[in-house]
Amino acid sequence: MAETQIEFDVPAEMRDGTVPRADVYRPGGAGPWPVLLARLPYGKQTPVMTVLLDPLAAARRGFLVVIQDTRGRFASEGEWEPWTYEESDGYDTVRWAAGLPGSNGSVGMIGGSYFGNTQWMAALSKPPELKAIAPLITWIRTTGCSRAVVRSSSASPRRGRSCRVSTP
Description:
Layout: E1 5-11, E2 21-26, E3 33-40, H1 47-52, H2 55-60, E4 64-69, H3 86-98, E5 103-112, H4 114-125, E6 130-136, E7 141-143, H5 147-151, E8 164-166
Parallel strand pairs: 3-4, 3-5, 5-6
Antiparallel strand pairs: 1-2, 2-4, 7-8
């Protein structure tokens, strides 16, 4: 199998011209591959990232991995205003990642804490290429759900209860 290729600080232009930057890990071989995307304000090369997702290991298993500094953080341009741009930047980033060379057009997101919430925000905007999210260590506001549902970050009601989910 060919070696994993890594590109650092790849620009992704948002609809307003701001350019966040991402590290892209491509599997060896011909592809195409599904994309695993994480958007975080903690620094895309922070050790906390690899606790949840080792990008090299994921690329060796056939995923194109994209780890992006959110707007205004580390290598990314723009002003850091928590939550303000996560829905639109999430949408634009999912669409951009799906169009990267080697991508099969399907994007899943992963991460915890703030970058768990970047997934909820991206999902609200409904980019067609976003197929799955896996938010961890995050929160959601719910109506009519048990605490167990909230703790598990599950939008599925338990024992026949109805549940509505919204993000902060």
